[in-house]
Every structure is written in C-alpha cells, then in structure tokens.
Amino acid sequence: RRLYFDTHALVCLLEENGFTTQQSEVIVSALVKIMNTNLDMIYKDMVTKVQQEIALQQVMSHIAGVKKDMIILEKSEFSALRSENEKIKLELQQIKKQVTDEITKVSADNKLNLNLEKSRVKELHAQQDRALTQTDRKIDTEVADLKTMLESHKLDNIKYLAGSVFTCLTVALGFYRLWI
Fold first, then answer.
1. Residue 113, SS3?
2. Is 157 exposed, middle or buried (0-12, 13-18, 19+ CB in 10 A)?
3. 3-state secondary structure (DSSP) of residue 158
4. Span 23-80, pLDDT tens digits
5. Helices 49-112 and 114-179, interaxial angle, to 10°?
6. How far apart are CA 79 and CA 90, in angstroms?
7. What pLDDT score was predicted for residue 85?
8. How far apart are the first and last CA of the chain?
9. Is the confidence at residue 84, as pLDDT, over 90?
10. What start-end ranges are recorded for coiled-coil regions in this protein (predicted)?
C-alpha cells in the first residue's frame, strides 16, 4: 500500500520538536495504521473498473431484453389486431354477398311482376340502401374504434419504453454517481 507522505521526514520533524525516536516512530506507526484503516473503509465502498463494466453490461443486457419484449409485445398485439380486422373483412364480404343475393332474388321476382310490383321494388331498394348505409356506418365506426385502440396501444408501448429507458438511465446515473 502506498503512503502519501514521507514517514521518515515526519519522524525527523517530531524528533526536532522534542519527541524521542521511539515516540516518533510509535506516533508515525499509529498514523499509518489509522490511514490504512480509513483507506480500507473507503476502498470497501468503491468498485473497480471491471465491476463497473460488468454492472454496465448487465444493465445494457436488461435494456436489450426489455426492448426485445416490447417488440414481441407490439408485434403480437399488431398481429391480433390484424387478424381481428381480417375477420371483420370476411364478415363484411359475407354480408355483402348475402345482400347481393337478396337483391338478385328480388330483381328476378320483380321482373316477372314488373307492372304490379313497381312500387314494392322501390320500397325494397330503399330499405336495402338504408341497411347498407347502416352497415357501412357500423363498419366505419368499428374501423375507427380499431384505429383508436391501435394508437392507444402504440402510445402505451411508447410510454412504457420511455419509462423503462428513463428508469435504466436513472439507475445507470445512480451507479455512476456512486462510483464517482
């Protein structure tokens, strides 16, 4: 262990001021022991560069794990929304096909009874148009709700990621402050 003062010079100084050689050496020896004890206490709270690098690598690996989890979570939620959207599209196509089939049936029946059923056909078309408009409105509403939910999930993911990054930075700065 290195000493940061000249022990022999201190012994000589003490002797010049009236202490015996033995008393001077005992005093210097006590000072060296006190300094060594204090340095041991200080070194006990310090970390080495290797320990600091290990801790930094651990924090970085935790951050990478969190990023990976966030990406997986975002992809899984996006996939779920995409599959839900596909289901809605299929249902919409089935509804449109059913409506088209109904229109075809009504048109065929109306061609046979054109003169008698002219006013009835107009009424059916009006009802079908209202049904299609309502269906389109419902679909538009559902799509808007899905977009809103997707944006909400994106914002939640960004908030979580930002919180995680700031937390990791805070921990890293805390470690840095402890080491300094």
1. coil
2. middle
3. helix
4. 999 999 999 999 888 888 888 878 788 888 998 999 999 999 999 888 887 777 777 7
5. 180
6. 16
7. 84
8. 22
9. no
10. none
CB 38 within 8 A of CB 4: no
pLDDT at 16 over 90: yes
What pLDDT does 64 receive? 93
Residues 180 and 176: their CA atoms lie apart, in Å, by 6
Rounded Cα gap, residues 171 and 165, in angstroms: 10
CA–CA distance, 161 with 154 (Å, rounded to integer) = 10
Question: Which of 158, 139, 64 has the alpha carbon at shortest distance from 99?
Answer: 139
Segment 13-25 shows an average pLDDT of: 93
Q: How far is CA 17 from the centre of its chain?
A: 69
Q: Would you give the DSSP letter of residue 15? A: H
pLDDT at position 115, please?
Answer: 65
Residue with tokens 């799509």: 143
Cα–Cα distance between 56 and 63 in angstroms, integer? 10
Spell out a b/e string for 108-133, using b for 16 or more CB atoms within 10 Å of the CB, else e: eebeeeeeebeeebeebeeeeeeeee
Number of H helices, E strands in the chain: 4, 0
